[in-house]
Amino acid sequence: MTSNLLKSPRTAAPAAVSPDDPPRPPPPRRAGRPAARRLATTVLPVIAFFVVLIGGWQLLALRDDSPLMPQVPVIWQALTDAVTDPVFYESLGVTMLRVSLGFLLAFAVAVVVGIAMGRVEFVRRFFEPAVLIGLTVPGLVWALLCVMWFGISLTNPVVAVALSAAPALTLSIYQGTLAMDGDLREMAYVYRFPARYKLRHLWLPALRPALLSGARLGLSLSWKVIVLVEMFGMSSGIGYQLNNQFAAQDVAAVLSWTLLFALVMGVLEYGVLQGLERRLNRWRKVTAV
Fold first, then answer.
1. Cβ pair 98, 165 in contact under 8 A
2. Predicted confidence (pLDDT) per residue in 84-96, tens digit
């Protein structure tokens, strides 16, 4: 009896499948597992990062016990005060208006120059030094120069943002023009499409990935430059408020304004730009490997 129990049980042999048998339906999938796995791979790392960041900051603040490194509850209180203050929304609106005007100016110039650089050799050689110089000049230099050139006016931040964002945008559009399918350009040349038709139905759809990637890079540069311009030469905006809190040596207020500004930028990046990119590129085939 015992020897029979210790013996490994025999597994039933699978039933032979005849070619005449109807196909078996696939086993039902469990709907909860993919969603839980996706949640674990996308949300949990972000939560873990913020837990480590906030916990590490609190430990350092408790260890130093200095007003230069405020504790998390003090920063949270300053954050709440800033959110409930109407000055924050006025400053944010002014800053976003300046960034929008400067970025639109840079975008318009970069589309024309970038396509021309990809099409005409003389234009490429003419603008190439300007693009390289623009990429190497720090945003702080543009901010200081525009403050000295234009003073306290709307032209100052608009030109500074355009000078900072245009080189990266131009380079991205130029590379996108080079990667464009030559057969499409030959077809447009043979059929003699009008320039406006080619721009709408040929150039802009082909350059869409380059435009989106360049826009994201240009916007990230614009936010950094606009804060510098407002700190040095403006009397309103997020940068001006940061400078005021810096003059008062209020570290908690500086951190709270910085966090709110970063939060707004994160909403624009993940909520607007990436959503627009997914919508415009939804026709593209996604590889499974």
1. no
2. 889 888 988 899 8
